[in-house]
Every structure is written in structure tokens, then in C-alpha cells.
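DM from R.C. (forwarded with permission)

"hey, sorry to bug you on a friday — could you get me a structure for this? deadline for the figure draft is monday and I only need the backbone to look sensible"
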Amino acid sequence: MQVKTDTKEKFHAITVPGPSLSATMTDELGDCLLPYLQNDVKNLVLILKDIENIDIAAGEKLVYIQQKFYENNASFVICELQKPVEEFLDENELLEMMNVTPTQSEAWDIVKMEEIEREFLDEE
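My reply, with the result:
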């Protein structure tokens, strides 16, 4: 899967091309994203602004990917969901399990806050 990657100091911003995200595409996306857990900078911001529709299996796979990141002390934030995608995920009770923000800036803030939180926990 072709994605656009922008690497920052504390995270990678990954933009997924649209217009749809299916289970098969999400499997490929998982294969693309999970290796970031081996990097020094593990945190990801997933930008879905170009995704106009998503199927249930793809939503479930995104939840799975997010869980893998958090299990490995890394942040995974999804941002810029289009309204129909957000509503679909909410109707299928997936949105509440995801770390979602309206903007990239807010996603970056969450990653930075979680990094600080992990640093404090490591000190204890």
C-alpha cells in the first residue's frame, strides 16, 4: 500500500490514500505500520482525511493495530476522519475504542502528552 510518510521528532505522520479503506487494504496497512514498533521513534499519527468510506473489518483492524502500539508503549492516534467514516465507526461501537482527534495538531499534542506520561512512569 502506498502511503505518505512525514517523520517528526517524536512520531511518524502517515497519510492513507482514499477513497475507501477495506479489510484487505487494512491488512496491508498493518503490514506497513507495525514495523514502526521496531524503530527508535515508534509513535504514529494516522491521517485518514482522504478516506470516504470504511468497512467494519477495516475498522476492527485499526483498533487491533492501535492496541499493538499501546502494548509496546507507543502512541497511535487517528486524525481527520471524514464525517461519514466517523459516524460509521461510532454506529459500530469502534470509535470509542480508538484514539481519534479532529486535527493533526491535536493528534501531535496527544502523542507528546503520552510521551511525557510514559517518561514519568518510567522514572517511577
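R.C.: lifesaver. Residues 4-123 form a domain with the Transcription Regulator spoIIAA fold (CATH 3.30.750.24).
me: no worries. The chain is about 45% helix and 20% strand.
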